[in-house]
């Protein structure tokens, strides 16, 4: 009996070890930011860090804040260039660094944001790909705190009315399951854009080849986000 129990325990421990090693190999094989230096961008006035949060503050104090969840297995700073464009347009942005670059491991990360910037009255949350799905899940459970949801290369997940969500994706996106976008309100397709170019991390496996630059795709995305936020802030 003892021999059987010992053998079973060894087998279980071996299985746990194999699963743990496999997960670490998977998690550490992620997309690194390309041509983005957090050190070069961070300064005392506009971009600061607070633990796992990178806060981009506009020069004029803002009452509108945007919490952003990065895409799965993408280094979070890859989204700083796009968020910097939003900051320059008067929106306070909070970029969340996720455990192992996977938002699914901390979908409630937004809980740690609200108290840090109490002057924000209108909170939006969103993200790219898996990050968008986790942001959507959070928004559906905190609709009293979240004014709007912003999805890039993602779709509504949870009980969120399309009127409270913005969905943006590239026409050449080879990763997004477009059949999940069963709604039409506030949906915008960027012609020539793909899945990866919402961030600066290079090509993504399975994605289409974009026919526009990442700068153009991000500019159009920022324009859609600003229009959406302006409309929601007035409502």
Automatic annotation (TrEMBL):
Keyword Ribosomal protein among record annotations: no
SUPFAM superfamilies in alphabetical order: alpha/beta-Hydrolases (SSF53474)
Keyword Flavoprotein: no
UniProt GO molecular function: hydrolase activity
Domain (Alpha/beta hydrolase fold-5): residue spans on this chain: 66-218
Superkingdom of source: Bacteria
Keywords, comma-separated and alphabetical: Hydrolase
Protein name: Alpha/beta fold hydrolase
Annotated source species: Paenibacillus plantarum
């Amino acid at each position: 009996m003892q021999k059987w129990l010992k053998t079973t325990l060894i087998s279980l421990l071996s299985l746990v070890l194999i699963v743990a090693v496999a997960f670490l190999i998977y998690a550490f094989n992620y997309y690194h930011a390309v041509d983005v230096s957090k050190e070069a961008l961070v300064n005392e006035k506009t971009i600061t860090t607070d633990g796992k949060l990178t806060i981009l503050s506009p020069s004029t104090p803002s009452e509108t804040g945007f919490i952003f969840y990065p895409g799965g297995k993408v280094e979070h700073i890859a989204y700083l260039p796009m968020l910097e464009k939003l900051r320059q347009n008067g929106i306070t942005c909070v970029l969340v660094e996720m455990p192992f670059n996977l938002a699914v491991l901390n979908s409630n990360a937004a809980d740690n944001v609200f108290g840090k910037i109490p002057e924000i009255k209108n909170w939006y949350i969103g993200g790219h790909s898996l990050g968008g799905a986790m942001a959507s899940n959070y928004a559906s459970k905190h609709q009293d705190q979240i004014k709007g949801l912003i999805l890039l290369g993602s779709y509504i997940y949870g009980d969120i009315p399309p009127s409270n969500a913005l969905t943006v994706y590239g026409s050449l996106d080879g990763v997004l399951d477009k059949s999940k976008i069963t709604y039409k309100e506030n949906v915008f397709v960027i012609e020539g854009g793909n899945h990866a170019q919402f961030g600066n991390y290079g090509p993504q496996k399975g994605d289409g080849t974009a026919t526009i630059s990442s700068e153009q795709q991000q500019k159009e995305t920022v324009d859609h986000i600003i229009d959406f936020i302006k409309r929601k802030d007035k409502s």
